[in-house]
Amino acid sequence: MRYIIIGAGAVGGSIGGRLAESGHDVVLVARGAHHAALRDHGLRLTTPEGTRVHRPPVVERPDELELRADDVLLLSVKTQDSTAALDAWSARPVAGGGSAGERLPLVCAQNGVESERLALRRFRHVYAMCVWLPATHVEPGVVSAGCTPYTGTLHIGRYPSGTDATAARIAADLEKSRLLAPVVPDPMRWKYGKLLANLANAVEAVSGRLVSDEARDLAARARAEGRAVLAAAGHDAVSEAEQDAVRANLSFDPYAVPEGGGGSSWQSLSRGTGTIESDYLNGEMALLGRLHGVPTPVNEALQRIANTFARERRPAGSLPAAELLRIIDAGA
């Protein structure tokens, strides 16, 4: 199997680098300065074991690559970029006949729960992957991942549910590449659990690490709204205890990531991308809350403020948590 990593950033770069390191056939897909750096200098991946440079093929567009019948497309762009990527790749021809959307498996290795629905409109064979892989990408061509002895945990299953031989083969390749990959029949249950944790991403992006009482209070309130929304919507989510039991197999080395680094939303602001994934994290709770009559004032405010920061390219972590709390409470 050849793995085409669509979005070779923090998560995609870590997965692609580990697969390449273990001898698997990998193609990295990236844009702009990151693409140029990967093409010219390779992927510089730092883990607690050290720094290695991997040089798999790198492309910027689907038409630069001839797709094969044994390809696996692993989508790891932010959800706000999913539609464009899915449209670009699904129509591409595959050697032997048919299109990627008709023939190839597509794995959504992303936060949130929306990309799988977007993908299933375009691909017949969609797999959900719940990603727990603390990694940082703020410099072109450079990715840092801080967990050991495994780089992350990647629960995988068919979307919307079930398992099959393809999921098992992908998981086996990941496990050989220092990535835990449990095959589960209910991957969305894991993704909803991760979504609850990700509701704090906007707080971290806007105000920095969750070290103050105000930041922790906002994160707790956002998650409490999320749990109420998921209960009203009938969506099951894994418990924190279940997640902790899996993560106990990994330990995090803070010295393996850049000082001051944060999660995926913080990294988007740090790179000045102009977009942030809050519409599909806090915004998912706002959407479900409106559908099911559950108020979500904290998540709505975090969605709005995070989007303003991204649009205006304000620095990550530049609004003190006490001020963020005051703004949200004033509007509640």
Automatic annotation (TrEMBL):
It holds the Pfam family ApbA. It comes from the Bacteria. Residues 188-307 form the Ketopantoate reductase C-terminal domain. Residues 4-157 form the Ketopantoate reductase N-terminal domain. InterPro entries: 6-PGluconate_DH-like_C_sf, 6PGD_dom2, KPA_reductase, KPR-Related, KPR_N, NAD(P)-bd_dom_sf. PANTHER family: 2-DEHYDROPANTOATE 2-REDUCTASE, PROBABLE 2-DEHYDROPANTOATE 2-REDUCTASE. This is NAD(P)-binding domain-containing protein.
